[in-house]
Amino acid sequence: MNKNIFSLGIKNLSNGLKNKRFTSLDITKKYLESIKIKNRTLNAFINILEESAIWDSQKSDKRRRDGKELSLLDGIPIALKDNININDVITTGGIKAYRNEIAKSDSFIVKLLKDAGAIILGKLNMHEAALGATTQNEFYGNCNNPHYIGFTPGGSSGGAGSAVAAGLCVGAIGTDTLGSIRIPASFCGTVGFKPTFGRVSNRGIMPLCKMLDHTGPITRSVEDASLLFEVISKFDSEDPECKIIEPYTHNNDLYIESLSGKNIGFIDNNNISGLDIDIQLAYNQAILLLGSKGAKINEIDFDNYFNTEKLISQSMLIMESELYNFHREKIIENKNDFSNTFIKNVNFAKNQNAPKLLKAITDIKNTRISIRKLFKNFDAIVVPSTPTVAFSFQKKPPKNLASFTCLANFGGCPAISIPTDNTSGLNSPKGLPIGMQIITAPENDLLALQIGWVLEKAVKWKPSNANNNFCRF
Predict the structure, then answer these.
(1) Which residues lie below 8 Å from residue 432, measured CB to CB, with a gap of 6+?
(2) Strands 171-176 and 214-219, sheet pairing
(3) Could you give the dihedral angle defined by the CA atoms of residues 395, 400, 84 and 117, in that order, rounded to the nearest 10 degrees?
(4) Which of 18, 134, 174, 404 is most buried as measured by Cβ atoms within 10 A of its Cβ?
(5) pLDDT-based confidence at 473, cuts 50/70/90?
């Protein structure tokens, strides 16, 4: 079997399976072996589903022998954030209180993935209740960034970012409420795609904030993100937030060469406070590259539109209120099964008055309208995914960590994070990934992926070996 199996994406793996260069069982065993070795250090997986993965890969191989392949994803090993239900498997949500809670049915997207023949390797570590951006979990252990052990992989889908970057799965499914797919993607050097709000069903997924929750893929390429998105983006009539949108189909429309005629907005570096110097340089380079591909680049002043600090504070109040309501019985039963930080946060929200909560909800909804108005003048907006790169667990997370990612959630807009560079070692350890984010108007998921594809090909990013060998894929 190909020694570089971990460097192959979905399409090449599918072709290899079709041409009998290897079997799904071969691939699955390789990934399970990688998990057993690397997960001891990374702690990306909470639950490894070895037995069912082996069994499902054997069934995939039989389907292929019988000429009944289900899709390009048939026989391909992926993993899921541990707030996504798999029938007869524990869903913890990163919370101690749910350590023995076995799901009674598949989430809607797991049903779609199974129908496509995907091999589910296991459940991935996450920030407790998805309320945080570091995946520093006191019950299930910290998940390490594979580029630098002892550093955060981001969150709350940190296990997904870490596992994909380290070659523990071909791709993963995470959730994103203020940036929880794109922050790990940026910190770990992967592609993270948050689709249009309501385009992917959240039924069967432990909620954080129903008006802001999104589900999407973390992969090692834009192409793989597009392929996974195609599978999970079917309409779910039983999810009240799911929208009837024309189904996304992965095809040659993704692979464009030019951005001619596209008007892309950017923020002048001088107007961004607290931006790491390496990120400033990478941002300038990304803008130049997009311009070289034919895009018209125009400055946009976000400060005249949004007070992100206030909006994040208001969204946190909404989240914490919903968390208290959802987990209320467990909290009353035994609050020691939750961290002190979690209890402090939900108690704060519980004690706020209804008008304050209603104002927060109203302000977020009004912001959604304001963000969508931006796309009357711009086809896309390009900003850094995060204002800083990955940092040590010993450091306190910066308050502005989600300041670039949150706007796409407030607007319900599709957004994708692409790795474009590595740190030089000036202010952070050398070789940490830097991500750039592309945001487009709601329902314009294809354009976000197209621009991501162009930028990915232009930068030709590769992980640095400056720190360790976890990410040599």
Answers:
(1) 145, 147, 148, 151, 187, 389, 390, 422, 423, 464, 467
(2) antiparallel
(3) -100
(4) 174
(5) very low
Q: What angle do CA 24, 30, 32 make, to 5 degrees?
A: 100
446: Cβ–Cβ under 8 A, 6 or more apart, which residues? 248, 253, 254
The predicted pLDDT at position 469 comes to: 57
201 is catalytic: no
Spell out where 74-165 has E strands.
77-81, 119-124
Is residue 353 in some structural domain? Answer: no
The pLDDT tens digits of the residues spanning 9-22 come to 999 999 999 999 99
Per the domain annotation, does 169 fall within a domain? yes
pLDDT single digits (tens) 206-260? 999 999 999 999 999 999 999 999 999 999 999 999 998 888 999 999 999 999 9
201 inside domain: no
Q: Please confirm, yes or no, whether 273 is among the known catalytic residues.
A: no
Domain that holds residue 103: 5-174+217-231+246-253
Give me the sign of the Cα torsion angle 330, 334, 338, 340. positive
* 356 domain residue, yes or no: no
Token pair of 379 as six digits: 């086809």
Closest CA to 436 of 127, 185, 78, 154: 185
Q: Give 392-405 pLDDT, tens digit per residue.
A: 999 999 999 999 99
Q: Is 356 a catalytic residue?
A: no
CATH number at residue 117: 3.90.1300.10
Enter the pTM of the model. 0.96
Catalytic residue among 107, 157, 180, 315: 180
The residues, ordered by sequence, that sit 6+ positions from 319 with a Cβ below 8 Å of its Cβ are 131, 177, 208, 209, 212, 349
Catalytic residue among 156, 221, 385, 403: 156
Domain count, the chain: 1
